[in-house]
Design brief:
The protein is an alpha+beta fold and about 150 residues long. It is about 20% helix and about 40% strand.
């Protein structure tokens, strides 16, 4: 059992993107449009800006993480590689990040899915292409989004 599974951690997530976050290829230089949501994740009074990126065209494939990350140089960028109800697979240019940072990345993606009405599963499983998995449960507490690690299902 890895330490990350035993630790209890809760973060707060504030979604800054208020519209659909659609960005066309004329702006990005990519092959097609993307959808990007900027969020602030706060853990232990430390806040970091994250951007979660999806392809906005089902025919398009997102390029490698390093190319997408260059579009948002001041943010931690994650790319949604697959998503179904209750599960998301992410890649991240900071894949060698520590478990705390990866939990923040997972929390950002799961919160956007839940808050935008894309995922109503009780627990969202967030898998990284590097093999790390988190079970998270984003909850709106009346003031904002709070995300805690959930027990594995």
């Amino acid at each position: 059992m890895r330490w990350m599974r035993a630790a209890t951690q809760t973060v707060r997530v504030e979604i800054l993107t208020k519209d659909a976050g659609l960005i066309g290829p004329d702006v990005t230089g990519l092959a097609g449009p993307i959808q990007a949501a900027r969020v602030i994740v706060t853990a232990d009074e430390e806040s970091r800006s994250h951007v979660v990126v999806w392809r906005a065209d089902s025919e398009m494939h997102l390029p490698v993480d390093e190319i997408v990350a260059k579009l948002f140089p001041s943010d931690i960028v994650s790319c949604v590689r697959a998503a179904i109800e209750g599960e998301t697979t992410l890649s991240c240019a900071d894949a060698d990040a520590n478990d705390r940072q990866l939990f923040s990345v997972a929390s950002a993606a799961a919160t956007v899915k839940r808050s935008w009405g894309w995922d109503e599963a009780p627990t969202i499983i967030v898998r990284f292409t590097t093999g790390t998995t988190f079970f998270v449960d984003p909850i709106f507490d009346g003031r904002g989004w709070r995300v805690a690690r959930a027990a594995g299902v």
